[in-house]
Amino acid sequence: MKHTDIKEIIEKSDYLGKTVTVCGWVRTARDSKNVAFLELNDGSCLNHLQIVIDKARLTDVDVEATKLGASLKVSGKVVHNDRNDTNEIDAEEITVLGICPGDYPLQKKFQKLETLREMPHIRVRTNTFNAVFRVRSVMAAAIHRFFQERGYVYINTPLITGSDCEGAGEMFQVTTIGYSKDYDSEEEYYANDFFGQKTGLSVSGQLEGEIAAMGLGKIYTFGPSFRAENSNTQRHVAEFWHVEPEIAFCELPDLIEIAEDMIKYIVRDYMEKCPEELKFFEQRFEKGLTEKLLSVVNNDFAVVDYTDAIEELKKADVKFEFPVEWGCDLQSEHERYITEQVYKKPVFLINYPKGIKSFYMKQNDDGKTVAATDLLVPGVGEIIGGSEREADYDKLVGAMKDRGMKLDDYSAYLDLRKYGSVPHAGFGLGFERIIMYCTGMANIRDVILYPRTVGSIR
């Protein structure tokens, strides 16, 4: 169906005086004795295009064309509305493409986000989700561009895996058998399953990414990860999108620099390409959002040792729900205090106790900590987790034995340390969390098309 995007009509003066055809859904409708006004949106931009219906000229407009949610094709001349300083269309022909009955769920001007989550197939037509998913698209493109411009190779790691990427999260089981009483043991069950062993949906592409980096140098993955934690917080979903670079010949300070450059690149690109959406989010969801993002772009992030952060938390005049001691795994309340109250900007926390981090992280010389880093941001908490990887074969084997891991299950991973091992590092960015940070959306369920959570598979 030949038509022009509404974004083009609104933003460009080239169309003034020309007859065009647009398509879209009716967002608002106003009627008077001589003229009617419709606002149409086709998803190409946040703003709506006003359609002016002169009743003296158009006498046979279908009444269905004025109902909220109806889809239309409209032809007419583009004119400038001096009062609103925007382009609009004087309608010459209106065709109803799809009628919309009176039980259309979006009749109210404002609806709670909790209500809209119950209708993910409809909520994309609201201003909020129109803006969210356009921003998501722009930020995804920026991530790819950042790595591609710097010579990284894009790798697709498997979604079905026999590795649990030890410590990364609970896994969803993949099976073709399902519930059965036909097997006497777990071993017999899995031996008869599709892959002949226990398999699950990947919690991370890191291990396979490291393998790729040992031949390609710099790689990144960008795809879904699956974690089966029984969690209903505002920051967790069971299926999320994960950005995971792995870089050969890279140590922790290098990794921190790359991560900071990436975050600034994404934020800057978003601010340049989505000014209307940014203004919308600032008005509706987070006052001071623009100032916060400018601070990210224009200032260095803090780098703070875990031990120093613990001391800051212990002397804080705050009663935390979870007690703080050296060796504890920091909770969201601790992370947000560090970023929002102490440093008031993004913070790379480094050198965590090895007991609370994964086996593959490089062991520091003190014997107590590992060269790990989490990037904490105000309002969200952790959005990046990464580390320098342990490149020493014997130390890696020792860490795996300490955790009771089966070395045979990780023979390929150990081979990387046997055949030409090099210092290397990587991190994982939760894509939805950086979207939350940049839009002010407080719940991760509102930045993903179909949120998968405990007890919900709508």
Polypeptide structure, described:
An 8-stranded mixed β-sheet has the order 6-10-11-16-15-14-13-12. The protein is α+β, with helices and mostly antiparallel strands. It contains 14 helices and 16 strands. The model has no long low-confidence stretch (mean pLDDT 94).
The H-and-E topology, N to C, reads as HEEEEEHHHEEEHEHEEHHHEHHEEEHHEH
Largest sheet: 8 strands, mixed
How many β strands by DSSP? 16
Q: What overall geometry do the principal axes of the alpha carbons give?
A: elongated
Beta-strand proportion = 15-25%
- Which value, in Å, is the CA radius of gyration? 27 Å
Arrangement of strands in the largest sheet: 6-10-11-16-15-14-13-12
Low-confidence stretches: none
Discrete helix count: 14
What is the average of the pLDDT values? 94
Distance between the termini: 31 Å
Alpha-beta classification: alpha+beta
- Helical fraction equals 25-40%
Question: Would you spell out the secondary-structure blueprint of this structure?
Answer:
Layout lengths: L5 H6 L7 E13 L3 E7 L7 E6 L16 E11 L4 E13 L14 H5 L2 H4 L3 H23 L3 E2 L5 E2 L11 E2 L11 H6 L7 E3 L4 H11 L1 E9 L12 E10 L3 H22 L1 H10 L4 H10 L3 E4 H9 L17 H12 L3 E7 L15 E9 L3 E9 L3 H10 L8 H8 L5 E7 H9 L19
Parallel strand pairs: 3-5, 6-10, 12-13
Antiparallel strand pairs: 1-2, 1-4, 2-3, 4-5, 7-9, 8-9, 10-11, 11-16, 13-14, 14-15, 15-16
Helix pairs in contact: 4-7, 4-14, 7-9
